[in-house]
Design a protein that fits this description.
Helices cover 31% and strands 26% of the residues. With 427 residues, it is of the alpha+beta class. The protein has a five-stranded parallel beta sheet, with helices on both faces. A five-stranded antiparallel beta sheet has the order 12-15-18-22-19, with helices on both faces. It is globular and about 60 Å long. The relative contact order is 0.14. It binds adenosine monophosphate (AMP) and glycine.
């Protein structure tokens, strides 16, 4: 069977790598792919991004099933285009993808369906936004309504920062159309977790839990990034918290989308803030919805999948997810992102990368921003690699990962030394 994975990041490399282990998978095309998927045995890159061109390619190659990695093609309607052609694809329609592509849509949806989230208001008028900030005070969070590739959220510690963010988005148009409308919301405190499920419109299959590290620097300091590392499972999501997230967030979301006439198919990622307190009562609030898997969360999650992933996706597109199950490796998987010089502001590209080891059962280096030119692997994006390993304890996994991270070389490489630190804190 031939498959297509749409996207070019570490997430897509990890999905393709895991799908290739399914005995029925003969080849995985990745569009557009990266330097890692270019050399992975059994994959090839396809230089296409336009949904109609991708659908034509799928037909001409006889590709059985397509999985979409990133949000942009979903918001463009790639799923609608494929379905109109009778092609099997796993992801949300353009309408359902609004849970991620419009923060205002997501917030209004959550309020309508009683799903816990931060108090908010939406603005297009800068004067009204400034007045709201004055009335609420800081800390306060300013979010561009539209997709902004991880640059759309400002957690403002002072009113001054909040006013500046409003001026940049609504006044100067710093984020273009994505920032022409902003959501201003209450700043939530607590510990974040990434809760990702598969959904076929009716049935829900949760993936293993995980935790991302959004800040560039150790100790969660420095600017926000797309994510500097992740691990799975996340101990903060105890069995009781898991049950509560399913009951208080995931089920009402899927049922709410269905009753609103926009059934949700695809990956649903709820970024959850878990407040202080006992598990029975501690607040659980949605920070954001994404309509895709997380990056880098996917890399450790894929390391832990022991079942045939193709079978799971087949159930998902055939609306029989109630018959699917995933067997998880009980060990901890942990991925450390290696980013290019000057990421996240103005990542430097083109540096040669050396000393990437061959994949092993317990350690794989997933590529994100890499490209292979004339036989030389070079950096081509902000997040370059995600070194991911599996071991019995968080400490042992860190040790294994950092041995490999320390061996890999490219100029200006940035990475955190403390991925997984929350799992080592006493609880
Ligand atoms: P988002 O793109 O909405 O996930 O926001 C990116 C990051 O900003 C989140 O992962 C949080 O770390 C932070 N964030 C977003 N909303 C809030 C909030 N209401 N309170 C505190 N932090 C937030
Ligand atoms: N790692 C966070 C995200 O993919 O949105």
């Amino acid at each position: 069977m031939k498959l297509l994975v749409i996207g070019s990041g570490g997430r897509e490399h990890a999905l393709a790598w895991r799908l290739l282990q399914s005995p029925r998978v003969e080849h995985v095309f990745v569009a557009p792919g990266n330097g890692g998927t270019a050399v992975l045995q059994g994959t090839s890159n396809v230089a296409l991004t336009d949904p109609a061109a991708l659908a034509a390619f799928v037909k001409s190659e006889g590709i059985a099933l397509t999985v979409v990695g990133p949000e942009a093609p979903l918001a463009q309607g790639v799923v609608d285009v494929f379905r109109a052609e009778g092609l099997k694809i796993f992801g949300p329609t353009r309408a359902a993808a609004q849970l991620e592509s419009s923060k205002d849509f997501a917030k209004a949806f959550m309020v309508r369906h009683d799903i816990p989230t931060a108090i908010y208001q939406t603005f297009t008028d800068p004067l009204a936004a400034h007045a709201y900030i004055e009335a609420q005070g800081a800390p306060i969070v300013i979010k561009a309504d539209g997709l902004a590739a991880g640059k759309g959220v400002v957690v403002a510690m002072t009113p001054h920062e909040a006013h500046e963010a409003v001026d940049a988005m609504l006044g100067d148009g710093s984020l273009g159309a994505a920032g022409a409308r902003v959501v201003i919301e209450e700043c939530l405190l607590g510990e974040e977790a990434s809760f990702i499920v598969l959904c076929d419109g009716k049935h829900i299959l949760p993936l293993a839990t995980s935790q991302d590290h959004k800040r560039l620097g150790d100790g969660d300091l420095g600017p926000n990034t797309g994510g500097m590392g992740a691990y799975s499972p996340a101990p903060v999501v105890t069995p009781l918290i898991h049950q509560r997230i399913m009951r208080e967030v995931i089920e009402p979301t899927i049922h709410g989308m269905e009753s609103d006439g926009i059934p949700f198919t695809g990956f649903l990622y709820a970024g959850i803030m878990i407040g202080e307190g006992q598990d029975e009562t501690r607040p659980i609030k949605v920070l954001e919805f994404n309509c895709r898997m997380g990056d880098p969360e996917t890399q450790p999650i894929m390391m832990r999948v022991r079942s045939d992933l193709l079978e799971v996706f087949e159930h998902a597109v055939d609306q029989t997810l109630d018959q699917a199950r995933i067997d998880w490796d009980p060990r901890t998987a942990l991925g450390v992102v290696m980013a290019s010089a000057d990421y996240p502001s103005t990542p430097r590209l083109g540096d040669a990368i050396t000393h990437i080891p061959e994949p092993e059962a317990d350690c794989v280096v997933f590529h994100a921003g890499t490209t292979l030119k004339d036989g030389v692997l070079r950096t081509s994006g902000g997040r370059v690699l995600c070194v991911t390993a599996l071991a019995d304890t968080v400490r042992a996994t860190q040790k294994r990962v950092y041995e490999v991270v320390d061996a890999i070389e490219f100029d200006g490489a940035q990475f955190r030394r403390d991925i997984g630190w929350r799992a080592l804190e006493p609880r």
